[in-house]
Amino acid sequence: MDITFEAQKTLQRLLAELDFSQLTPQKKSILIQRLTNGFQALFNQLFPLYGQRFDLHYHLKVLLQSVIDFHKKKCPAQIKDKSALWFESNQNVGIAVYVDLLADDLVSLIEKIPYFEALGINYVHLMPLYLSPEGNSDGGYAISDYRTVSPKLGTNKDLKDLASALHKKGIRMVLDFVFNHTSDEHRWAQAAKAGDQEYQDYYYFMDEQDAMEYNQTVREIFPQIRRGSFTYLPELDRHVWTTFNSFQWDLNYSNPAVFVAVVEEMLHLILNGCDVLRLDALAFVWKEKGTVCENLPKAHNLIKAFKACLDIAAPHVVFKSEAIVHPDDVNKYIATDECTLSYNPLMMALLWESLATRQTNLLYQSLERSFQIPEHTTWVNYLRCHDDIGWLWDDTISDRLGIDGIGHRHFLNQFYTGQFAGSFAAGVPFQENPVNGDCRVCGTLASLAGVENAIAADDPLLLDHAIKRIRVLNGINFAMPGIPLLYQGDDLGVLNNNDYLKDPTKVDDSRWVHRKKLTKADFTLAEDINTPQGKIAQLIREMIQIRKANDIFAAKSFELISLGSEHLFAFKRQSGDNVLLVIANISEHHVPITPTLDGLIGNKTAMNLLNNERIDLSSFSLIEPLDLLWLTKA
């Protein structure tokens, strides 16, 4: 079969059937041109998924009519920066926030825009803000209605007003696209519960035997909450697929009607003014019996089909992948025809691993293999987020270094939850598996780095070390290629908060330990340079200012540099004759540097951008404990 010919023939048939009558001649012309350019890519991805369906033509017609109808509606004013490659600029610095934890609602969040500007933020990720179940909603990731903002946060108009206000200040807005599952309160799920066969086909309903067979190969995500990946519904005497929580029903993308319906929801999100869509839990979206049901080839077909729709309907919007899986699988989602941006969970996890071990071998070896991604795609680098820390690395690399993967992960869990002698961290375990003892770690940046324990011990040296760890982590994060992303409160040095233990809807989810409601007192504390919080806030602000003032932080060239010590981490970025050499000591001791540095920079003297100090490289051979250098030619 000549798929190119079939795609062209199908498009011509569809164009004759579609209704463009409510579009202006200009909008119609633009859209037909985008369809002409982009339909082949869409057809190429949908055909492997639904080519055997007799009703594929019908679903394509509904899909494209939805795209046409989308163009009849008005979006908030777009950001002035129309650069297609905006994400490659050193001006980008992001922050992820919960609307009601940073402010009270969407209207009051507009009042926080001056804070974003002062900090240097131009990329704001709003955590899920749509209608979701009362009580436990997995932090908003159980969505009951993609088209209705939670009344606690405001209205759709408030969200559009926020988007406009952000865009006026040159700040991009990021929203979550939760497309693996809905809440069991979504109208599709409610219809399915009521016996509507059309909507039962939107989900995975099966008998106990089928559920048991699937459970043989899929992994448990929240084993403390529910064993297996299914929830029994006594009113239907059926099991429904629930990868995460029993109230989050996985969508059945083997049904093309589901794909079309979710594209329509995606377009509605864009109507609210977003510039980036974060694809939540994208590794789980395609299921096949006898597999782990993660990272399957057809998951990529599906995501590329969504991207093809995005390029036709709203090419100014880009996808960001959230794939917290094996590093090799993370990289497979990153492409100009799939996800332009991607979280970098490997670097995040291994920076914490390096701090615990005071060794950088695993970090070096892993980044050397997995950091490079296609041209015109970008990492989103982060130290903490709304979620837990999982110790994701390739065990073939740790094996080669003589590290037992299982044992080392157990050590890291013990270390960061304060159960290892000498640990500086005050983290909290999350979802410990009672069978294999595996778990993940929660906590704020400051508490995990040692600030909380140092304050409790009233020990100035421990506190100094903790703040320096935060400086080292942020110094690496801000200097790596990609978009650095802060998590709310970490910019203020906020510590763990145990108030969630008093809330019955949150007590079983330790991630709330780092989801604190920020108060005026938190901001006031961070303004006082004599407090640990003030020192942390100041160093982060200064690093952001330096990054945005120096184009070298946009350099595409990146090279890991070995300096002869397992306690050091270094890399070089270069653009023409301009060079940035970043050196970090992740130990609490002086560390000698074996090679001379002048050859790496191409000059006898260097300037440390972090303090404007000139350094004679020929005599520079020792780096201070937990120190960080951003070196350029003097």
UniProtKB/TrEMBL annotation:
GO molecular function, one term: amylosucrase activity
Domain called Glycosyl hydrolase family 13 catalytic: residue spans: 96-522
Source species, domain of life: Bacteria
Keyword field: Glycosyltransferase, Transferase
One GO-annotated biological process of the protein: carbohydrate metabolic process
EC number: 2.4.1.4
Keyword Glycosyltransferase in record: yes
InterPro entries assigned to the protein according to its UniProt record, in alphabetical order: Amylosucrase (IPR044077), GH (IPR017853), GH13_cat_dom (IPR006047), Glyco_hydro_b (IPR013780), O16G_dom_2 (IPR045857)
Chain ranges passing through the membrane: none
Keyword Transferase: yes
Protein name: Amylosucrase
